[in-house]
Amino acid sequence: MSNVQPATGIHDMGGTDGWGRAPVPVPNEPVFEDRWQARAFALALLSMRLSGTNLDAFRHAMDRLDRADYLDDGYYGRWLHGAENLLYDSSIIAPGAVEARATNLSGGRVEEPPAPEPNKPDYAPTAAGSIRSVEAPQKYKVGDRVRAKTVEPAGHTRLPRYVMGHEGTVVIVEPAQLLPDTHAHFQGENAQWVYTVRFDSHELFGADAERFDLNIDLYEDYLEEAA
């Protein structure tokens, strides 16, 4: 058994028990096993453009899926359900529209809800991509001992619950990047330094865990000095 706290959502499943062994990828396997997966991938990218949102908002759209929508339809099914959430959030389609179209395509007869007035966020990136230049000096350097903060995020975050409260060592200082916690909610880019922190498996999962090192990229806001 691990000492990891319960996940805040099905997406925050790292370090939790009961999932069995991870499948080993098949060498040279195709990017898409079925044609619908390629279409789901394209629709997910299109949904960000149509909804006027961004990659972090898309990740948050998947964070909010229930267990069935997150797992049962596989990886690209998760992308497809996340794309639906983005389109609902920006009122590009009405709730129930996807289900109505699916029913009608299968031979049923259901009246589709009328399309609402779009309500896209007032958002425009300051530059392409997620890497930015910042004037603030880096708070930590390679070799520093740090602790991942213990927080209860109100919305999106890239801080995994299984590292909260645990100590590690900075091994790489990455370029400054947009903070997903605010960027996903259109509350500012808040670019800051990112650090690759190395954790010992015994620190994270207890003395009975297999011994290995785990490197995790963490934003400066996620860290504090270790005692």
Automatic annotation (TrEMBL):
It is an enzyme of class 4 (lyase). Residues 1-22, 104-127 are annotated as: Disordered. The keyword Methyltransferase does not apply. Pfam families: NHase_beta_C, NHase_beta_N. Residues 9-111 form the Nitrile hydratase beta subunit-like N-terminal domain. Coiled coil: none annotated. Keywords: Lyase. It catalyses: an aliphatic primary amide = an aliphatic nitrile + H2O. Residues 132-224 form the Nitrile hydratase beta subunit domain. The keyword Nucleotide-binding does not apply. Its EC number is 4.2.1.84. One of its GO terms (molecular function) is transition metal ion binding. InterPro entries: CN_hydtase_beta-like_N, CN_hydtase_beta_C, CN_hydtase_beta_dom_C, Elect_transpt_acc-like_dom_sf, Nitrile_hydratase_bsu. NCBIfam families: nitrile_beta. Belongs to the nitrile hydratase subunit beta family. NHase catalyzes the hydration of various nitrile compounds to the corresponding amides. This is Nitrile hydratase subunit beta. It comes from Planosporangium flavigriseum. The gene is nthB.
